């Protein structure tokens, strides 16, 4: 996760999940794409980190 923080102490119990797609990406950049922008529409991999006690999603991401 390249140093991404999950917002919990280093000794907190979490569950890391890696998934393989393809995953269709829509509205991920917070608005319409710029004209003539080369924006990938799918991602091959993704990951998510969950709080091991509550099951709450802490952070997620996708990789091209």
Question: What does it look like?
Answer:
- The chain has 64 residues and is mainly beta.
- It has a domain of 41 residues.
- The protein contains no helices and 3 strands.
- The chain has a 3-stranded antiparallel sheet with strand order 1-2-3, with no helix packed on it.
- The two termini are 14 Å apart.
- The mean pLDDT is 85.
Give me the secondary-structure topology.
Blueprint: E1 14-24, E2 42-51, E3 57-63
Antiparallel strand pairs: 1-2, 2-3
First and last CA, distance:
14 Å
**Counted beta strands:** 3
> How would you describe the shape?
elongated
Mean pLDDT, as a whole number? 85
Strands of the widest sheet, in order across it, are 1-2-3
SSE arrangement, N to C: EEE
| Helical coverage, percent range | under 10%
Rounded Rg: 14 Å
Q: How much of the sequence is in beta strands?
A: 35-45%
The computed structural class is mainly beta
Query: Main beta sheet, described?
Result: 3 strands, antiparallel
Number of helices: 0
* Unreliably modeled segments: none
List keywords for this structure.
single chain; 64 residues; mainly beta; three-stranded antiparallel beta sheet; 3 strands; 0% helix
Quickly describe the structure.
The chain has no helices and 3 strands. The chain is mainly β. The chain has a domain of 41 residues.
């Amino acid at each position: 996760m390249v140093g991404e923080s999950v917002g919990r102490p280093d000794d907190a119990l979490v569950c890391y999940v890696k998934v393989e797609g393809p995953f269709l990406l829509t509205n991920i950049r917070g608005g319409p794409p710029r004209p003539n922008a080369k924006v990938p529409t799918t991602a091959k991999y993704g990951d998510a980190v969950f709080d091991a006690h509550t099951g709450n999603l802490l952070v997620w991401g996708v990789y091209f």
